[in-house]
Amino acid sequence: MFDLTGKIAFISGGTKGIGKGIAKVLKQAGAITIIAGTSQTRGESIAKELEVDFIPLDVTDQPACKSAIDKIIEKYGRLDILCSNAGIFPQHYLKDMTAEDWDLVHSVNLKGTFFLVQAALNVMEKQHSGRIVITSSITGEITGISGYSHYGASKAGQLGFMRSAALEYAGQGITINAVMPGMIMTEGLQSFGDDFLDHVKETTPMRVFGVPEDIGYAACFLASDEAKYITGQTIVVDGGQVLPEVQEA
Ligand code: NAP
Q1: CATH class, range 8-237
Q2: Domains of the chain by residue range
Q3: What is the pLDDT of residues 60-92, one digit of tens each?
Q4: Catalytic site includes residue 217
Q5: Who lines ligand 1 at CB under 6 A?
Q6: What DSSP string runs through the chain?
C-alpha cells in the first residue's frame, strides 16, 4: 500500500459507492480524509462510520465548491489530494432525451469536475504540489451503453478536460489523472436492475463486479509520491471488460 500519511485528501461523492471506497483506502493509507455529498444526513453518518470529516457540497454550485476548499484550508492548512468523483447516471434513451436530461448529467459530471478541480488547483498552485484524480469511466472514451449517450459524453469530456488541465499544471508539481472504472458494485449501479447486471457479470472476463476499493487502490497509487512523474493519464479498472475482440461463450 502506498503511504499517504499526513496528506490532506478531499473526495467528492465520498458518501456512497466508489467515493466511499476511495475514502476508505486513502484513510487506510494514512491520509486525513474529508468526504462530500449533497445529503447531509448520509454524509454525517458515513463520516462517523469511516472516522473522516464531512462537508456538504453540491458540485454544480461553483461558489460552494470554492467555499468547500476554503473550509479545508482553514481547518487543515493545505490540500494535497482531490478525488473528483461525484457523478450521476440516469438512463435516458436518445429518442426521448430532453435538454434538461442532458444538462443535468453534464452539470454534475463535467461542469462539477471543472468547478471543483479549478477551486483545488487555485490552492495547489500556491503550494507547488498536489494530486488530482478524476473518476471517469470506460463508458464514453472506450465503450457505449444504450440509454447513456449523455453520460458517455460527460465521462469522455472529463478526460478531454483532464489532459489539457494536466498540461497547464505540469510544471508546477501538480498531477491530474483519471481512473476509468468498469462495472463496480455500488448503490448507483444497483439501479440498473438484476437482469442487466446478471448479463454484465456473465460477459465480464473476470466474471465478477469490481468493488469500490478497487478504484480506491488505483486512486491511492495516482495520489502517491511514487506517481509523481505521471500526469494526464488514465488507468482502466474493469476486470477485463473492454478486452474481448469477440464475445466468448
Ligand atoms: P453512487 O453510488 O450513486 O454515488 C454517487 C456519489 O456522488 C454519492 O456520494 C452522491 O452523494 C454523490 N453526488 C451525486 N450528485 C452529487 C452532486 N451534485 N454534488 C456532490 N455529490 C454528488 O455512484 P457510484 O457508482 O459510486 O459512481 C461514482 C462515480 O464513479 C461517478 O462519477 C460515476 O460516473 C463513476 N463510475 C461508476 C461506475 C460503476 O460501475 N459504479 C462505473 C464507471 C464510472 P449524495 O447522493 O449525497 O449527493
Answers
A1: alpha beta
A2: 8-237
A3: 999 999 999 999 999 999 999 999 999 999 999
A4: no
A5: 12-13, 15-19, 36-39, 42, 57-60, 85-89, 108, 112, 135, 137, 181, 183-184, 186-189
A6: ----TT-EEEEETTTSHHHHHHHHHHHHTT-EEEEEES-HHHHHHHHHHHT-EEEE--TT-HHHHHHHHHHHHHHHS---EEEE---------GGG--HHHHHHHHIIIIIHHHHHHHHHHHHHHHHT-EEEEEE--SBTTTB--TT-HHHHHHHHHHHHHHHHHHHHHGGGTEEEEEEEE-SB--HHHHTT-HHHHHHHHHHSTTSS-B-HHHHHHHHHHHHSGGGTT--S-EEEESTTTT--SS---
